[in-house]
Design goal:
heterotetramer; A: about 120 residues; mainly beta; SH3 type barrels; seven-stranded mixed sheet; 8 strands; about 10% helix; about 35% strand; D: about 140 residues; about 80% helix; flat
Chain lengths: ~120, ~130, ~400, ~140
């Protein structure tokens, strides 16, 4: 199984991005990658990384609670909000460079992570 | 089940989720996801990775590196690759990741075959279903 | 008519399968030292197992995924693995206690010492797990476990001072000679005995084994909300007969041989024989459930094929884990460690490990990605949240109480 | 809680658990009382068992199992207490307690022998002896010097 496709770049693993350090262009630290947002879907031409969810701590999503479908017991919603209160979002165009060895992602800006209702 | 979403978070919706074949039989877990750098710089999801070779690096600390080391030693080939399922085989995702191939044809379960051949097959009644 | 029979069978096996070695020992011991002043804990624990089992059963029926399949998915490999290791340690400890319980029950019925029974029990147990069909296993040991109803009959036969018993139930405080620390420790132990993690692993995995779908949720709820409370009544009757016979005599239960004694006093040899059958069925049934739960949980965590509905050769790693855990349980018991002591610690560590698997299930039961429109309703969430707090508080209190009371002395 | 902290907690617990009380007479008396309480529990268990066997309510097998387990438990409790170093001022307490314990052990031993032989006459005799030892242990809390 060829890992290097002709004419395209290197092969990486999404696991390497999880928890990577996020820094702004001027070097200031902005947190860690908590999750990697994907766009498109299997079989579609554009099944690609669409952006990063960035939080203060390592893997952040402590409760693994789906940030968008935040429904359910009041106490859990409070805990989840606390765990994700500082979550930001970096759309792909704002990603300047990824240093895979050092596990550092350099970005231009951080947008707020809106709590959209579940799209389905 | 909610149909395929426009976009979703890999960590929450794909990583560590159960992969099942089209007969709904478990194949393995999504232990990691292979990303391919395209010409335009975008990272495309090219395959789902399974087995200790994929899970080890995601488990921090000594345990993670130890898993990978043991896995390398057990595999016959010098530079073993983790189990790999092409992304295009994935049909849809709900509480599991459904792939169109049959579990047998995906050859991602070396340990299963070892356990079957070395232990289970040797015990009478191994072929009888419940 | 066939449907009614199936539902009745489900309820009966839920009752018979509810009590295990942890319930037998802990309830008798608490009855002999605290009377029924801790009965409220059994009620809280039974309601808890109903809430937790209904949720994980509904998740299994609707999403087709069992507990540990989801735990890793929600908590990721690192926290998920710590969860797996802790839950498996508790489940394996309970597995050893159950096998020890079977051996003790056999010792009570024969003159052969418990330690000699252990290898025989383990061998027979593994053969049952390998060959006997899942449904047969559940029904035989569930129905045989109903023999424990003899404890309720004995309580009636002892014609106790019902007013006095009720007085104990309604005064939730330590009996003279017992401190609040001991009271708290045994509250945790009783709660852990009633709400043991493996019961939920087995219940949800059983749902997937039996191919439950959304339309089975109704039957599942009948089993849970009717079977478990009646099973809880069996636990209470074990505590009650101990309270009637042992508490006034100041005899503290410390051996399985003591537990059926009040039944003998009330109903003679026949009663005692039925009680021993109940012990054997309860502990052997629970040994099967805990043995399978170890296999289920590890297989689900790593995404392997698992279950008794596929031929063993198609779930090789699952059966390998079940075989290894049965083999590993024997040397532990052959060190002549007292199964009763193992049981007492297993229930307290169960209470400690509960939040680890409760939390992900509560999260999943609210996630439309898995449950579609069968997500938790308002009641399920209200109870779910109350028990989230109860379970975390009990878990936090477990170790300090164990240290203060030096294991409940 | 990191592993180091857990080990520290357990170490403290172990220390607290086995601080031998031989120095303080009060602690020694408490140790005596708790041993006598445990002894009373075992002896009363034998008392109930022998009574049930005499009424033919339990099998010989169960009676034997109960009485031997009770005997082990009693000798365990008594052994631990006798092994303690009594403070100088507690000899009176020690004599009273050890006497009660040895009477109890003798009664239980007779009961075990009778039950194992299924000798009803001996069991009746042992039944009263065990009852007597049990009452003596029961009164220990008030009468212990």
């Amino acid at each position: 199984m060829p890992t290097e496709r002709p004419g395209t770049g290197a092969v990486h693993r999404l696991g390497e991005l999880m928890g990577a350090v996020v820094v702004l262009a001027d070097g200031t630290r902005a947190g860690h990658v908590n999750d990697v947002r994907l766009a498109g879907g299997p079989g579609l031409p554009d099944y690609v990384v669409d952006g990063f969810v960035v939080g203060a701590r390592g893997e952040g999503a402590l409760l693994g609670y789906d940030r968008r479908a935040v429904r359910g017991p009041w106490l859990l919603r409070v805990l989840v909000r606390a765990a994700n209160r500082d979550a930001r979002y970096v759309p792909w165009p704002a990603v300047r460079r990824i240093d895979w060895e050092a596990k550092v992602v350099v970005v231009d800006r951080l947008d707020p992570l809106e709590d959209e209702r579940p799209s389905a | 089940m909610t149909p395929l979403r426009a976009s979703y978070d890999a960590g929450l919706h794909l990583l560590d989720r159960q992969i099942v074949d089209h007969e709904d039989l478990p194949v393995a877990n999504v232990d990691d996801i292979e990303l391919l750098e395209r010409a335009d710089g975008r990272l495309a999801v090219s395959a789902l990775l399974t087995g200790p070779g994929a899970l080890g690096p995601r488990t921090p600390g000594r345990l993670g590196s130890w898993t990978v080391a043991v896995w390398r030693r057990l595999r016959p080939d010098p530079d073993p690759r983790p189990g790999r399922i092409e992304a295009r085989l994935v049909t849809h995702t709900d509480s599991a990741v459904h792939v169109s191939a049959r579990a047998r044809d995906l050859s991602v379960d070396g340990f299963e075959q070892w356990a079957r051949a070395q232990v289970i097959e040797k015990i009478p009644g191994a072929g009888r279903a419940d | 008519m066939k449907h009614i029979f199936a539902v009745a069978l489900g309820v009966l096996t839920a009752i018979g399968g509810f009590v295990d070695i942890g319930d037998l020992v802990t309830n008798a011991l608490v009855g002999s030292r605290f009377g029924l002043s801790l009965a409220w804990v059994v009620v809280v624990g039974v309601v808890g197992i109903c809430v937790f089992s209904e949720m994980s059963g509904r998740v299994a029926a609707v999403s087709g995924r069992a507990t540990f399949d989801l735990v890793r998915e929600r908590l990721g490999p690192r926290v998920g693995l710590a969860n797996l290791v802790a839950s498996m340690a508790v489940t394996f400890l309970t597995f050893i206690a159950e096998i020890g319980g079977v051996a003790l029950a056999l010792e009570l019925a024969t003159s052969v010492n418990e330690v000699l029974w252990v290898p025989v029990v383990a061998a027979v147990l593994w053969i049952v797990l390998w060959r006997v069909r899942f449904k047969v296993l559940e029904n035989v040991f569930g129905l045989l476990g109903l023999a424990l109803v003899v404890f309720a009959v004995a309580l009636w036969q002892l014609n106790p001072d019902w007013g006095g018993l009720w007085q104990q139930v309604t005064s939730p405080m330590p009996t003279p000679g017992e401190g609040w620390a001991q009271y708290g420790y045994y509250a945790v132990a009783l709660f852990g005995a009633a709400l043991t993690p493996y019961e939920v692993f087995f219940f949800s995995s059983g749902g997937v084994e039996e191919r439950w779908t959304a339309k089975d949720v109704g039957t599942m709820r009948v089993n849970v909300f009717l079977g478990f409370p009646l099973g809880g009544l069996l636990s209470l009757s074990i505590a009650a007969v101990a309270a009637v016979v042992f508490l006034p005599a100041e005899v503290q239960v410390e051996a399985l041989a003591q537990v059926p004694l009040p039944v003998a006093l009330a109903l003679g040899k026949l009663g005692l024989a039925i009680a021993l059958i109940g012990f054997f069925a309860a502990t052997f049934g629970a040994a099967c459930e805990t043995g399978l739960s170890v296999g289920y949980s590890i297989a689900q965590f790593y995404g392997w094929r698992w279950g008794k509905f596929v031929p063993p050769r198609q779930a090789a790693r699952f059966h390998l884990v079940v075989l290894l855990s049965t083999v590993l349980a024997v040397p532990v018991l052959l060190t002549t460690v007292d199964p009763i002591a193992v049981t007492e610690y297993s229930v307290v560590f169960s209470a400690l490990a509960l939040p680890l698997t409760y939390l992900p299930i509560l999260v999943i039961a609210n996630d439309p990605d898995y449950m579609g429109e069968r997500v938790n309703g308002r009641l399920a969430n209200a109870l779910g949240t109350v028990y989230l707090v109860v379970i975390v508080v009990v878990s936090v209190a477990a170790i300090p109480l164990m240290i203060i009371t030096k294991g409940g002395q | 809680m990191t592993a180091r902290a857990a080990v520290a907690v357990l170490a403290v617990a172990a220390l607290v658990g086995c601080a031998t009380p031989e120095g303080d007479p009060g602690a020694y008396r408490d140790e005596a009382l708790s041993t006598l309480k445990a002894a009373h529990s075992a002896v009363e268990w034998v008392h109930i068992t022998v009574g049930a066997r005499l009424d033919d309510k339990i099998f010989a097998r169960s009676a034997d199992d109960c009485v031997s387990s009770a005997e082990d438990s009693l000798s365990g409790a008594a052994g631990t207490f006798v092994g303690l170093q009594p403070p100088r001022s507690s000899d009176e307490v020690r004599d009273a307690a050890t006497k009660l314990l040895s009477d109890a052990q003798d009664a239980v031993e007779d009961a075990r022998i009778a039950v194992r032989r299924d000798d009803r006459a001996a069991m009746r005799q042992a039944y009263t002896a065990v009852a007597h030892a049990s009452q003596a242990l029961g009164r220990a809390a008030e009468e212990l010097p």
